[in-house]
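Objective 1b: paired records.
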Amino acid sequence: MSAPLAGIFDNGVMWWGLAACGVAQLSKLVIELVVHRRWNPRVLVETGGMPSSHSALLTGTTAALGWVQGFDGPLFALAAVLCFVVLYDASGVRRAAGLTAARVNAMGDTPKPLKENLGHTRLEVLIGALMGPLVALPGLVLLGSPLHLAQGLGWFTAVG
């Protein structure tokens, strides 16, 4: 495996942030089954809903970054600030856009209905924001990066 490719697979911060996003997205399918009693795999690729996978992605990545590089560094500060912007946007601007789309659709003048489920409630954002670190930090600390896992299983030899 080339060194750049190995570097990508050794980036536990990125992969565990993505894993948090994936867990949040998969939980939407479970919630759909349990609460609404229907199989709707479209929720895996749709925006909005409980929990916010964007929030899980950002908070998981930010927490993992802080763990690896320190919570006192400027990179963590930048990630945290951007995280807050995304969380605010999800429950503010994007949610307002979805509510506006619902009003436009109710007027019945559009040839194709506008997408209404764009943003999140504050509870959806909060649950996603809590899921991120709850998935990313234990994964990073206990399991490491995908490359580290693969090497531990004997799939790849150490690069370097």
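Objective 1b, second protein:
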Amino acid sequence: MSAELGCNKPDPRMYHHASTALGLMPTQRLFIDDDPDLVQAARDLGYVGRALVRDSPLPDVPPVPSITTLTELLELF
């Protein structure tokens, strides 16, 4: 998709394109990535976001909500 849009995350166009394609508001979307900076970029745009951290704990700054396994997502619903 980045080749079509001519940009990469964290460019807001990436996030907006996905929301528009699905017909959802950002608050209705859950963005998961192993890069906390990309998760924070999505959260800055109104998305619900979680960083998937399997190996080492996240640094305290910036505070990004995280999960260690995908099964933890079930608690959000």
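The first helix runs from residue 2 to 5. The chain has a mean pLDDT of 85.
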